[in-house]
Amino acid sequence: MELFTAFLFGLLAMVCYGISNFTVQPLTRELPGPVIVFYRNALLSSIIFIFLILFSVFQVAPYYLSLKYILIGLGVSLLGYIPYLTLVRALKVGTLGVIIPVTNTTLVFAVLFSFIFLGEVLSLSSGIAILIIFIGLILVSVKSFSKFSCDAETLLSPGVPIALFTSLMWGIMFTLWKIPAMGLGPMLSAFVLEFGLFLYAGIHLKIKRIPLPHLTRTQWKRLFTMGISTGIATPAVMFGMQAGPGAVNLLAALTYSQSAVVALLAHWFRNERLLLRQYLGIAILIGGMFLLMMV
């Protein structure tokens, strides 16, 4: 029953994160990256702050105030600002159903970096899972197997090299994020992360003298959809973590399976068509991530 509860919260997080990523792509072709991050994270950090207060009042998820870990968290958040901008760039030029599965390979980089730098154990099963994910990644990202080239721009689908860089940077960030998460608690660390992104986007806009544009009603709707869906997903993950042993791994596997939700939404609502091998690649990626987290 405990794992079933974690499964339900993980499913909710998967759908909400998928909706958020599905919604952002049109904005990447209309607004500068820092503007998207500024508005998105202003709303998102406000929502998470409200949940943080509610969780504290009802003692659902305790947090610990520490200036040291808040500063570390803001430093890690600065590192996370870079890949969010590159994600926006990748979505601007690439296919949604390809870019999101590629960026979700962050899980692999996080496991590898934890093994290399934090001394965490990498089992044979984990190695097999990473190999499976790599096979799925090739099926999704290679433009054509009949016209093989050593040139990344020719070999890979548009936006994939940028998405791989995004995944690598997020892998570094999530590895380091374990430090403030342990020191502050899950909800406060999530707030510091999202508020930090809002802060750095504001500084970026100020330095580059990028004015905040007048948004259309459709753009506001998309930004609110992004903020609210992510604002629901984050507490869902936090609630699910309380379910018991094995919950964290199950939640991680479900959360990183959002690429299936994104591919389906893009297919249904934007008539986005992928090759059969790319759909197969997404399925293999998801299977590999479940294996990686559940072994």
* Helix/strand structural class: mainly alpha
Q: What is the average per-residue confidence, as pLDDT, rounded to a whole number?
A: 85
Which percent band covers the strand fraction? under 5%
Number of self-contained structural domains:
1
Principal-axis shape:
globular
The proportion of residues forming helix, as a percent range, comes to over 70%
Number of strands: 0
Q: Sketch the major β-sheet.
A: none
Summed up, the helix count is 13
Q: Ranges with pLDDT <50 over ≥5 residues?
A: none
Intertermini distance: 20 Å
Helix-strand pattern: HHHHHHHHHHHHH
Topology at a glance:
Elements: H1 2-28, H2 33-57, H3 67-93, H4 96-103, H5 106-117, H6 124-141, H7 152-155, H8 160-184, H9 186-208, H10 217-241, H11 247-255, H12 258-269, H13 276-294
Describe the structure.
By secondary structure, the chain is mostly helical. The protein has one domain. Helices cover 79% and strands 0% of the residues. It has 13 helices and no strands. The chain has helices spanning 2-28, 33-57, 67-93, 96-103, 106-117, 124-141, 152-155, 160-184, 186-208, 217-241, 247-255, 258-269, 276-294. Helix 1 (2-28) packs across helix 12 (258-269) and helix 11 packs antiparallel against helix 13 (276-294). The mean pLDDT is 85.
In short:
This protein has 295 residues and is mainly alpha-helical. The protein has 13 helices and no strands. The chain has one domain (2-294).
